[in-house]
Amino acid sequence: MLNIFKTQKFIEFIKAKNSINNDDIFSVIFQEKKMWIKKGRETGSSKLHRFYYILFPFEILIPVQSKTGQEVIEYETGKIELFKTLGINTPNVLYKDKELFVLEDCGKNVNSYIRKRDICEEKMYYYIDKVIEVLSKIHNSGNFHGGAQARNFTYNNETVYAIDLEDSFSHDIELETLQFRDLVLFLVSLTKTRASFDLDYNYIIEQYISLTKNDSFKLKLIELANKISWLLYLCDINFINNLLGRDVKGFIKLFRTLQHLG
């Protein structure tokens, strides 16, 4: 059977769409199939980011490696293919060249579901459990995601896929540290939900630990929260608290919970 994604017609279609769109990532439809074009874009942390990491050496602030656009394409598509061999759900790479690559559509990002104001608890934990399963599978295979926010997982036909795997880090950083960073990023991304109920972070963390056996991460979460106890204290001051937005208050609530993990 002819692979339509290797035909000259498909390649010309992709290059034509790319030439008229300035976005780094955008969707197109070819022969009734939705897909995503992702351009090679440089990665790297700013000098300010690196400075903050020196002042506050928290896992969540670890600078990413600098890579050229072409290096990003090779790295991310290679990681996608590696994950596939490990049984981790990722979108298929339909085409790539030195400027871009094309991914099949794998549904909407999970964040778009859990941020709905009218989401019920059953649905919320349904999506969260699905993401934890994929994240745990990544970690159990001896790998890391690199950007494990809820927006970097998609949902389609009862399946969650890992996407946006472009970030890499210095080889001096231990795998456990990067996996812990993944967990923290995921937890922080959940603070942006608009649900009418509070999330049970203890449950979420226990679910992750039960699947990965990374028991030490609970103590590391407590230690991380205690490192910013001064910030939590400041946010208790009335006039400061009144200035905080919903997302910041959600972040503070998460770290207060982490201080008292069971």
Helix and strand arrangement:
Layout (H helix, E strand, L loop, with lengths): L7 H12 L5 E6 L2 E7 L7 H9 L13 H17 L7 E4 L3 E5 L3 E2 H5 L6 H20 L12 E4 L2 E4 L12 H16 L10 H12 L3 H12 L1 H7 L2 H4 L4 H14 L3
Antiparallel strand pairs: 1-2, 2-4, 3-4, 5-6, 6-7
Helix pairs in contact: 5-7, 8-11
Characteristic terms for this protein:
single chain, three-stranded antiparallel sheet, globular, 262 residues, alpha+beta, Transferase(Phosphotransferase), domain 1, 2 domains, four-stranded antiparallel sheet
Q: Compute the number of structural domains.
A: 2
Strand order of the largest sheet: 1-2-4-3
Quick one: CATH superfamily of the largest domain?
Answer: Transferase(Phosphotransferase) domain 1
Number of helices: 11
Q: Which residue ranges are poorly predicted, with pLDDT under 50 across at least 5 consecutive positions?
A: none
What is the H/E string?
HEEHHEEEHHEEHHHHHH
Strand tally, please?
Answer: 7
Q: Which shape, going by the Cα principal axes?
A: globular
Describe the fold and architecture.
There is one protein chain. With 262 residues, the protein is of the alpha+beta class. It has two domains: 101 residues; 152 residues, Transferase(Phosphotransferase) domain 1 (Transferase(Phosphotransferase), domain 1). It is 49% helix and 12% strand. The chain contains eleven helices and seven strands. Strands 1-2-4-3 form a four-stranded antiparallel sheet, with helices on both faces. The protein has a three-stranded antiparallel sheet with strand order 5-6-7. α5 packs parallel to α7. The longest helix is centred in the middle third of the chain and has 20 residues. The relative contact order is 0.11.
